[in-house]
Amino acid sequence: MVKIVIDGHELQASAGDMIIEVADAADIYIPRFCYHKKLSIAANCRMCLVDVANNGKSLPACATPVVEGMQISTKSAKALYSQRSVMEFLLINHPLDCPICDQGGECELQDLSMGYGWDSSKFTEEKRVVADYNIGPFITTNMTRCIHCTRCIRFGKEIAGVQDLGLINRGDDVEVRTYVDETVKSNLSGNLIDICPVGALNSKPYAFQARSWELKSTASIAPHDCLGANIFLHTREQKIFRVVSKDNQQVNDIWLSDRDRFSYLGIQHSERLPKPYFKESNGWIEKNWHDALTLTSAKLKINIDKYTPKQVAGIISPNSTFEELYLFNKLIRALGTNNIDHRIREQDFSDQEFQPLSPTSMMSADDLQTSDGILIVGSNIGVEQPLLTIDIKSAIGNGAKIYVINPIDHKFNFDIAEKIIVNSALLPQLLAVMGQYDGLPGELANSIVNEARSIFASLANCKKVSIVTGAHLYQHKHASTMRVLLIELQKQLSAKLMYLTQGANSTGAWLAGCIPHRTTAGEIVSSNGLSALDSFKENLQTYILFGIEPELDCLYPGNAMNALKQASLVIVCSPYITEQMLGYADIVLPIATFAETDGTYINLFGSKQKTSPAILPIYDCKPGWEVLRDLGNSLDIAGMEYQSNQEVYQEVTDVLQQTKYSNRSNLNKTTKSLKFVSQSADLNLLLEWPENSVDCITRRSYALQQANTFSKPLAYINPEDADRLSLIDGEQIILVQQVCEFPLTLSVEQYVPKNCLYIPLGIEATSNLTEGKIEIKKC
Amino acid sequence: MIKKQKKYVLPENLQNKIDENLKKYPSDHRQSAILYALRLTQNDNGGWIREQHMRAVADYLKIDYIAVYEVATFYSMLKLKPVGKSLVSVCDNISCKLKGADNLLSFIEEYLQIKTGETTSDGLITLERAECLGACVNAPSMIVNDEYQENLTKDKVQQILDNLSNGDNH
Amino acid sequence: MKGMFKYMLFCVKCFTLWELLKGLFITLKYLFKPKITIQYPEAKTPISDRFRGLLALRRYEDGSERCIACKLCEYVCPARAIVIESKQSEDGSRRTTKYDIDMFKCINCGLCEEACPVDAVVVTPVQHYHMQERGENIMTKEKLLKVGDMYEHDLQKRISNNNGDR
Q1: What does the alpha-carbon distance between residue A533 and residue A557 come to, in Å, rounded to a whole number?
Q2: Which of A163, A182, A730 sits opposite B67 (nearest CB)?
Q3: What is the rounded CA–CA span in Å between residue A468 and residue A382?
Q4: Which residues of chain B are within 8 Å of residue A180 when distances are taken between CB atoms?
Q5: Looking at the structure, do residues C161 and C89 belong to the same domain, yes or no?
Q6: What are the tens digits of pLDDT across the range C96-120?
Q7: Nearest C-alpha of chain A: how many angstroms from B161?
Q8: Whether pTM exceeds 0.90
Q9: Less Cβ around it within 10 Å: N or C end of chain C?
Q10: Structural domains counted in chain C
Q11: What is the CA radius of gyration of chain C?
Q12: d(Cα A168, Cα A164) in Å, to the nearest integer?
């Protein structure tokens, strides 16, 4: 520790700290542009010059370490003169277009030139003009305004992991640019808008729409992935103008993924369902809410009497709020059925009895950052949870090694020590090999076995190991086997396990009881209901869908579509209406999106995060919990008379506190027989959701869709398979499955493993895909 | 149909030379070899670098494209536009200027019928201005195809240019 | 003695109706002075160059709108009479899609003109305007631009007259 004096305040600081850090901690403000607490030090703007005693020149506070007895003055005549001179230099080429600049009102340059600038400039020559260019659908450029602080460049290198922007040319011609004519590729690029201190990089969808001072800010949660990034919704007169990040060290730090930042564009989309509609013999009839609810409950009662309650299934989106999930559970159980599920993207449920109370990860983001060995199993983490890659990157910065086991060679924005890419059918075997498990079919090549053993050996040497698993695991046909093997592996490595669950509130859904074998707080039900996929396969008579679009949201959308089309009653509560929905639904009830209702989301770390409504529900929409409550009341279900969302929350937390199942976890290899499949000669389907098409809101955000890379109707295949099937790159093919045909374009890629057909879900072209064999036919 | 252009890959002899150069630097500082790799590529491809060459260098060094682009645009000896067979760089910094470099430059422009930065229509000579060549003692000076030409006069320059135009390098 | 004289003077003034004559004398005086009464509405009073009347939006000489939707007038308006909505126009510039001034709220303080960086919103010398129906008090962008077009000549003269003061 050293003692220094800043502006007459005696301060304690640890040696090696920079002056600006010590000053910030003591709430002494030093002006800055290039310095950012999350980025490395560049010291190229020179705005933070301070007067250090016994030093001839002023020193940059961001790059001067403190030493014992340092006497620093940030407001002496010399310091102020230096700062003012620097400001004059910075303003030489900066245009005076604040009135039309979107940064105006929240601009660091504007503020600092008021506080630390001279009122006039000695510069009388012509200012320079820099051409703007298109760097993608999220960011507008106005490079004449750039002051070359290089925050954006350091952000790319250090946080996003992809350096998209760089400084080209030199001297007076220097420019911040992307490579030749490329766009910004990172899915964290929206943060450039926040970190740019001037108006050079601004939000494109927000361009010229509002000024910062007239917007009302509401704290909320972005419910598109299981992290639940903290956001502020900026609104004016019932319209959402933009989303900015809310600082939360435990969750998203100060960053946001593009998906979270630009999903708001889908909220006020033209496909929003304005009113309740009923399908009658003469077409779709508009109803008011009172009639709609009475009619819905009447129809539901008739249908239950005609068939049995067992013929009813309720499927809810894992992106619903905790309160909605609880009320949905209460409603469906009261109808006398246990067919309720939120796991629309899973197909192996055989271990559900042995699952813990919820799939919450027993670790925090901090644990991930401090791990020295991280094993990623079956996850495209950069797409599923873009913000967690920042934590992984900081772990790498601390010396961690990353190992990857994936069914496809995903590109990551961090360095990987070792990776094994096998066909998804072989994934369970690979995990078993790592865990030294006997009795395997032995189909893995020796080289892969050796690699797996060496990864295990390196991980065993690590002090703190984290295992991260994601979509390729829970979507897998033998997910249960893999889960058991992972838990064995976790025990052997004394590691921590992180499940990147589906949707924003999977944990909440397990706790609230939106699973067929347990009700709220893990209470066991008398007889297990049907899971989402099974209830679609069984072709039931009545379906109640909440917040999902099965043709795009479910793992095998074709199965869902077949079931819904033959059902006699399909009630859909959805914020949006689509052509497909008009085909299968009988009743559609409009519900509000996350920005229009309050609710709670429980993220993968188990923290409960609350949202509050930023705008009123548009048209005649109602918040989801109100719809479920009113439906419950009109069905005369007892205990549904809630006055507020808070009451629902209170009730469910009371139930949760009394649960006796909080420590349930019996998942191990004795309780579950392991299944290993052999790799068949047929092509193995590997399905994935494009990162910007994960739910109904993101699919309707035009900016996100423009940036969606994987959403084209393409089928990806390995070059060897292409040769074997004599297919060429770019060819039109038809995938044939029983009666359905999907026209797709073939893309031959090296990163796809052998015997694998990699296709995107969540798009129109694959919305009829069912479980089962698939064949490729030439066009 | 999605068309995929055939990618330019660095020839093997260049790869070997770059590998040799990389050994000088720490293994995690692969970007240190950018300058060397770009100069090699430039010499191998008619004296200027095309976009695909930058890509190839970045791919080979496993670094981001923009990092190569930054270097390529920074240094004036890396050309991103086509140059003629011979490159004439005339110094116009203080010592040469005092000894009449400006006149010399305008003489060359007039003689070759091109402006500074352009190439003659027969593609033989490219004229450019250069920062101080460190040859102030024998100003005015210029570099022709990596060779210094000093104590220049109009006659001397004319002779050099005639030789270049005749296809003779000196 | 002095008091006696004062009293006598008072008596004389009382009996000769002196005060009345004094008043009538003023009337007589103004009878021959030049007349300042104006035959309103046939004739109009001269107004100051700084008179703050009806608001208007100006255009550039090429006919394009001056307003850049910076919303400074909206922010500075003490009566909150201005409502602006904006977006990016097709040529990429920042333009208003809505520019409404509620003339019932407007207090003609002229702060909007002071705030405007491009001299788009201005106060005109127009003091006579009326509305007949509910809703006409909202001056839309079209109306404001029309007012600006009508008085552009006066406005330019006024701005050049006021030049040294602003």
Answers
A1: 9
A2: A163
A3: 12
A4: 51, 65, 69
A5: yes
A6: 999 999 999 999 999 999 999 998 9
A7: 30
A8: no
A9: N
A10: 2
A11: 27
A12: 12
